[in-house]
Fold this sequence. Notes:
Elements lengths: L1 H20 L15 H19 L13 H21 L1 H15 L4 H22 L10 H4 L3
Helix pairs in contact: 1-2, 3-4, 4-5
Amino acid sequence: xxxxxxxxxxxxxxxxxxxxxxxxxxxxxxxxxxxxxxxxxxxxxxxxxxxxxxxxxxxxxxxxxxxxxxxxxxxxxxxxxxxxxxxxxxxxxxxxxxxxxxxxxxxxxxxxxxxxxxxxxxxxxxxxxxxxxxxxxxxxxxxxxxxx
Length: 148
């Protein structure tokens, strides 16, 4: 039942995100997709995930014993810290640092989590910056990444 509640909450939040993103318009065109595309994409993905939770077949009643509550709590705290440090540290560094505790919480070694985080931060930055021409904060690495 809790999966269904979470799924319904995801659909409602996604609808709110999509509604709020409708007003995101740049005063001048500096990106090909505009500021509305990313929140709309996230809202669509969240809505799809929520719908899947709402309509998926039921599972056994012992699901709570299988959920790693500690790991989920660490992931939530890491994402909160990510949101607070995103502008200051920049996308690449904040993403790399966020991935370390999340990776370790779900069983990865610190070295693999750090390597995965660095790869994730750099590859996503290059993808957004070079392929999609989306401006992301460079933060303390602006001298390396060409600072915007």
